[in-house]
Amino acid sequence: MSGDRVGIIGIGQSAFRSRRDDASYPELVREAVVLAMQDANLDFDAVQAVVYSLSPDAMVGIGNAERLGVDAVGGRNKPFLRINTGGATGISSVAAAYYHVASGMYDVVLTAGADKVGECGDSQTVLNKIWDPSYERPLPLGTINMLAMSAVRYMHCYGMTEQDMAWVTVKNRRHAALNPNAHLRKIVTVDEVMESRYISWPIKLLDCCPQSTGGAALVLASEQYIRDNQRDAVWITGVGHAAETYWMGDRMGNNPTAEHADAFALGRSFEKSYRMAGITEPARQVHVAELYAPFSNTEFHAIDAARLVARPGESVARLRDGEFELGGRIPVNASGGTLCTNAIAVTAMARVAEIALQVWGRAGEHQVQGARLGIASGNGGDHQIFGTMVIEA
Amino acid sequence: MGLRIQPAVIGCAIRPAITGRDRSLEEMIYDTAQLALADAGIDIDDIDGILVGSNDQFDGRSISVMMASGSVGGVDRDIMSTPSASEHAFIMGALRVATGQFRSQLIVSWSPTEVSSMSEAQRLGADPYFHRALPLDELSAHALQASALEHAVPHVRDAACAIAEKNRTHGRLAWPDPPLHPDAGPMRWPLTPTMTSAPVTGCVALVMASPDFVAERGLRDVAWIGGMGWATEPSFLGDRDLATAPALMAAAQQAYDAAGITDPSAAFDLVEATDATPYAELLAYEALSLCPRRDWMARATDGSFARGGRLPVNLSGGVLTWNPVFCTGLLRIAEIANQIRGRAGAHQIANARCGLAHAGSGFAMQYQAAVVLAREARA
Q1: Given this structure, which CATH class describes domain A6-120+211-228?
Q2: ipTM of model
Q3: Of B4, B178, B203, B237, most Cβ neighbours within 10 A?
């Protein structure tokens, strides 16, 4: 066993909701940090550095809002920096904390953040501003119609139907009903999804994630620290990032740089993570997956990119067969996933947190029995920047 | 604790004041990244990962790293961003090389001035209930810090004026062609127009690499990271004593411990300090253990920190010469790296073997960082 591994020793997550009128933005961060510190049984003196997780700060209405979170994370006079890779920010922040420890510079690092998407007014107005002001912003693009175009391409390439999309929602809502931290926990039927109104064809209301409010935090430590202090931990054994082109127009048309139906860079990121973790057959070796999928259709290309199926597009049939349900071959988004909870700044951190809990055997009612190795992913920007991780018991 | 593997800066590009309207921001970033790669003698295929530092409010985009991805070669490559500060991009890049999982990193930061009001963009970064209503921008916060120092240190204003004159003199040597220190606009007491510099559009890029990459390529003009530290102060100005810089003291101690430096006042051949105002530079002298405040007046006026003095500070002219607001921190690090590499240009000093870069940013220097760069790799 290598002595240079990095472990997760503490996890904190809010019970995500639409609004939290009882907690200001820094208080929301603090809530998650306190939960993680209690979980790790640490006091703040033990934390040597902090990585702050915050995606578009326009969501909380404060530029560089991480500055307001310094005291909430116990960061005063300590190493502190912020990461932003859009929706991938949460997993990128865990990766940044991982690099803090793996570099040999620190033994104990906290990463934390929060978001108030449910209180921002209209997240799509904020997210429209991620695009180039001259060309793609005026279309107008938002993240929903951006991924509706991906759904159309996926239908064209692999034969996915709107009913197939509805089954993703049905599955994830069943899972979320078992997770007390999930935002949308009401079980729905395929008919209810199909009867919900169109937001951007073929995506309907119940194919969409909610706008959530809440925080998340993780404490990472070096293997040496974990051994010396006899801590319990799970291990980050694979880390990857990769990006696609900024321009949506370059992903469609006759000569796309990458097919918009797929998640090309997510696949490349998983390749890196798997190579680092020594995983050669993910469909056989992975026990549980938390894949960032804010709209039902995107779970299919995430499963494809993670190579949990033999070929792109096969995820549709396998999901219909129940392989990705709790109790199935490889449960995907046993927490309910991003489709049921999306506090953007920490959504991808929650993916890592949920996989850590799964391989730790601490996931509660949505525990996947016997899970020892799991994967997590995060998608950011205009489906552009991707982060992935392998977590093992 | 120190870095497991020692990274080196192998290429730099400093474009502190980009004028004209013939290049878009994407093209300016592309140009600067390519210059840094060329300076390192490599191309983008040699780069494993990318860190960018940019400010969404200044760029007018919700996630400004997205736009840069193509310009810096981020497509199908590992890219992350640190919107907290440009110097944080450098730190993350160094940490990644130190893991042994990356052999090279491209670090890029930029700061445009197309926003209709820089002051308003900065004001959005203040908390909405207390500071924003003041109204607070970075110049106001710097002025409050200057005021606090004037209250705490007798005759500090004379020392500040001497520092400003020193840096302007350095700037005239370093940048002889372009017009210097554009009009900074309305001031905040006690600052005067000679104590600040107006924002300019700028872009900075660095390339860093692992020791095995440096050896494999036979690179000679490199600056090794001897130590680095970074720290932050709390957000609310009322929670801080603005006449002190405890976060910089903490950051410096990390850097010095890693570099094995016990007497900072005698350890460096030169320093680049973030002189958003000369008061900030004076505070840095103390927090970096280069000069106690009781000696500020004497050392500021006897030439100790001027070219040819005992410890030259801001040979580039500092922020008082060029102020590309968001990337001034990374610019300080690049300046020291270039001096160590013997590539600083008109303001190069002879035999620069060990230098210190101080990067400060945010309201009254909330974020602080110190980076030690050296000609020789550690044993």
Answers
A1: alpha beta
A2: 0.97
A3: B203
